[in-house]
Amino acid sequence: MPATVKHYARTDLTRSTADAIEGRGLFDEGRDGLFLAGPRRTGKTTFLRADLAPEMRRRGHTVVYVDLWSDTDRDPAKLIDEAVGDAILERLGIVAKATRAAGVESLDLAGIMKIDTTRIGEHDGATLARALGALRNASTGS
Fold first, then answer.
1. pLDDT per residue as tens digits for the range 102-136
2. Would you say the C-alpha torsion 127, 99, 60, 16 has a positive or negative sign?
3. Which residues have a Cβ under 8 Å from the Cβ of 114 and sit 6 or more positions away?
4. Torsion from C-alpha of 96, 33, 30, 16, nearest 10 degrees
């Protein structure tokens, strides 16, 4: 039987990290990303999943979490591309989900661009940067 892990919320750290990501510091313009480093089994993933991601969602941000160890036989870039594609579909709502379920793999994003969600990051697919831009637009409604 696996041991039960107790979670200790790090509220102050969560708020200060979220503020820094948003650029709310005195001399801060915001972050383009977040890098956490530390010894194994010290709570980095727990902090991201249980504290920071919910706080960022509460503040209206789209959070894409990718566990690169979830399938070590797959190219990490493919795992990232898949997570971004899923997030795009999630943000576009029920119509996008219905079209995907019906076998439609290409989405027209409000007439701005078309994305084949199965080919993000591939040679003839959308670049990851373009897909992330589409996700941002879908998330903010711009």
1. 555 565 655 555 666 666 555 566 666 777 777 77
2. negative
3. 106, 107, 108
4. 100
Q: Which residues contact 91 (CB under 8 A, 6 or more apart)?
A: 62, 135, 138, 139
Q: How far apart are the C-alpha atoms of 115 and 130, rounded to whole Å?
A: 9
Question: How confident is the model over 15-51, as pLDDT tens digits?
Answer: 999 998 888 876 666 666 677 888 988 889 999 999 9
Instruction: Write out pLDDT tens, residues 64-75.
Output: 999 888 999 998
Mention every residue, 6+ apart, whose C-beta is less than 8 A from residue 132: 84
In angstroms, the CA 19 to CA 78 distance is: 30
DSSP state of 141: T
Unique residue bearing structure tokens 């409604």: 141
